[in-house]
């Protein structure tokens, strides 16, 4: 697979969710079936071992098997793929990168060391070592809102000066904050900026480049069609985005705000609601899963709000 660049890293990327049984063990046969469906949706790319892929729960054998499975299937189908080598421990992140770089992903995703906040100097020390070991494989920095060290657009460019192979960032856009997007347009060069999936239309039209999409968890086919619509009919795409926000605000966000479920519990729950893959309901220990009893109600109401995602 050819390395990605900041200009080719664009669009709707689907996430690989772990297929698990009731005890939280990974079922690789069902996960392989899931990858086949994701490939059939013709996404801009597929990535593994993000938050929704529960990278922090995997032992190293599980990490390698998951990475190999994705690489084998995507390479055969000529679908770009990225492997998340993230871990809270920088040593484990480095070991994961060394273990899978032979799979030649288009890029690897990393987080900054996450037990104690790093300084910018320490972030550079970490990323320079990762760049050296990656040996030509580009790096994407995943900096979610719950990270210990939150970076600004100015910080991204500072890192880019020291880490030439850094091609992209995966970040929160402040809920479509106009001032944030103004900084992107004015300050950010040589980096592909990826934002939350439910903001994809307004985000791309404001200066972002794509999303590692939570909406693809609901329906990867509809998510890709929406991205293509952004290019061909921005007004329809923006109208659909408003209804996607209504769906999220009414039917998904309350699980986080009121019931204190995790974001990745919602990603898995949306896959059950979308009914496109048999991945199971169970997050890995110790995180709570949203009970399946809520699926039918959310599916029925979702069909009325965003029927495009329930065809």
Description of the molecule:
By secondary structure, the protein is of the alpha/beta class. It has one domain: Alpha-Beta Barrel (TIM Barrel), CATH 3.20.20.70. It is built from 12 helices and 8 strands. The protein has an 8-stranded parallel beta sheet, with helices on one face.
Nutshell version of this structure?
The chain is α/β, with parallel strands linked by helices. It contains 12 helices and 8 strands.
Write the layout of secondary structure elements.
Blueprint: E1 11-15, H1 28-40, E2 45-48, H2 60-77, E3 81-84, H3 90-100, E4 107-110, H4 120-134, E5 139-143, H5 153-162, E6 166-171, H6 178-187, E7 192-194, H7 200-206, E8 210-212, H8 215-218, H9 220-232, H10 234-257, H11 263-274, H12 295-305
Parallel strand pairs: 1-2, 1-8, 2-3, 3-4, 4-5, 5-6, 6-7
Active site: 142 (proton donor/acceptor), 170 (schiff-base intermediate with substrate)
GO biological process, one term: methylation
Family: Belongs to the DapA family.
